Amino acid sequence: MLDIPDEVLYVIGQNLPTEDLYACLGVCRQWRLVFSRLFWRSVYLQKGANLAQFLGPFEAWAAAADVPVPILMHVRKVKLQLQENEWAHVDDIKILSRLCVHLQSLEVHLKRPWPNDQDMLTRLAPLTSTMFPSEMACLTRLYLDLPEINCHALKRTILPQVPHLVDLHLDRVDFSWGIKDMEVLHGLCPRLESIDIVATVCDNERVDRNIREERNPAKHLHCLRFRALFGLEQRYLNWVKYVTKKYRRTLEDLSLAGDIGTLPGHPDEVPDARFGEDDAPFNLLRSGNSRGKLRYLRLPDALFRERVLTPGLRHVSLTPSQHNHLWPTYYLDTVDASITSVKLECYPADFEPISDMLRRAVPNLTHLDLNCEAIYVELDTILSVCSHLNHLFLESTDRLVWDSTDSEHHTALQQLSLTECFVEEEVFVNINRHCINLAEIVLNGVALVSPEADEVPEVILLDLTGLSHLHSLSSKRISWSSSTDERDELNYIGACGAVVLLRPDNQERIYDIPCHHRTPEHWQRPSQHVLGVRPLRDDDAITEEFYDRMSQRASEAHGRFILEISCLPNLTCYVDDRRLLRE
């Protein structure tokens, strides 16, 4: 999405009569030539002041209901991001949506105040209920991220005006949302293909036996994601029954999420007390997916058991219980050769349950996203039990180790991403030896761990010359830690002060991290282009004097070290989201 050029706003904002301005924009041949290159397909405004400035030049058209704005007739997408104190500008969306007569996608974000401002929520409710002035037949995508979206106003005023809606995202619906509301939604918007709703409370209701696919049919829905802050954990079975009855012919992506901590009683007693031995909903889900439509499944720990898995699944995202003695009930105990992607967020006592599950249940796994805190993760074990693994994403591991001493090569691994992990030195040594087909490495917030190191070394060497296919390396916030005591606790020592690329031809490429402070707020994949950030070329910092200066700085300043990366010439390096280009 592009911002509006200032010179265009200046021309449109001149104090001219409506007829003259309309003639300039839409009739005169010269203006047609100018605006033929400036037709706005999308509008992206980040603040309420920018929204008011944008609407200022169009006040004359806003007063005349039947006069279109030529320059806005081609706008298809509008995205607004308002701050928490700019709730009053929500009313301007009504004007903007009327001016953009062919609008297809509307996305509104309003930051939630913390703590919640009840006065703001009270004033915001009537504005969101009258957001659209009239029927918007062209709108196909609606994304509302607001502190409060009144459920009754949503069904009475907003949804009836968007009958051709295809993609709907609501966060957060207040006060409650249930199965009956889903039926109303399908009746008002029968063409929906994707639904993503976050509600405060899930209604306590049972599935109507009369609900059939013919009543308010959802013939096109392929993605359903529903999350409730309270109440859904007690009604998972009702939602499973509803989903299998309503969407069994088309649904491909299913996600149900709730807060297990809201239930009374001891957490260990929740799963058995909630489900017992009732297998009917699970069998219904399996039989409903006999045609193999369901591909992506995301369920909380309450449904984390093998009987809910359906034939034909490709991706499973699960959050098993943090109580270790419940793992035998939950982990995947059956072999499912169709599952190729698993996302697992768990807090077990050790790594053994995870390795057993990967070894037994998913023999054809190619993508693994693992987030497990406070345990040792054995990288060599993961690569051994998942021989077809291509992409591995590890996050928040207490220690990443490599224990095996065999010479087995793991040729399938192509992408490795480590985020907020403590990694021992031997891990990179073994990666360089055994993962010979690795093509991309991402290091984000990685701490290199060295045993019995009291102070940070001046230079740390990372040898990657054995990875002949490695073409991309991204590093960000690299630090150094040590484990010296008997309890094996990690002690932070220092951070990376500079990165040096050592080529086989002895040509060094140096990147000085403290000298470049322009870093995007959000980390991006190396394959994505970082807009607004100039790539750093080799000639910006190559001189030998600079290397000597950095070595002296690392030795004098406590906690700074130089990271030397020995690599092949075909490697493209990213440091703090900035690409290091060769001459």
Structure description:
The chain is an alpha/beta fold and 583 residues long. Among the domains are: 320-438; 446-467 and 478-583, no CATH class. Helices cover 25% and strands 27% of the residues. It contains 17 helices and 28 strands. It has a 19-stranded mixed β-sheet. Strands 17, 19, 20, 22, 23, 24 and 26 form a 7-stranded mixed β-sheet that branches. It has a two-stranded parallel ribbon with strand order 13-15. Strand 4, helix 8 (151-158) and strand 5 (167-177) form a beta-alpha-beta unit. Helix 10 (236-247) packs parallel to helix 12 (280-288). The longest helix has 13 residues, at 544-556. The chain is globular and about 75 Å long. The model is unreliable at 1-20, 25-37, 260-278, 322-331, 514-544 and 553-557 (pLDDT under 50).
User: How would a crystallographer describe the biggest sheet?
Assistant: 19 strands, mixed
Low-confidence stretches: 1-20, 25-37, 260-278, 322-331, 514-544, 553-557
Instruction: Please bin the fraction of helical residues.
Output: 10-25%
Mean pLDDT: 70
- Judged by helices, strands and strand pairing, the structural class is alpha/beta
Question: Terminal Cα separation, in Å?
Answer: 32 Å
How many runs of DSSP E, i.e. beta strands?
Answer: 28
Domain F-box: 1-43
Protein name: F-box domain-containing protein
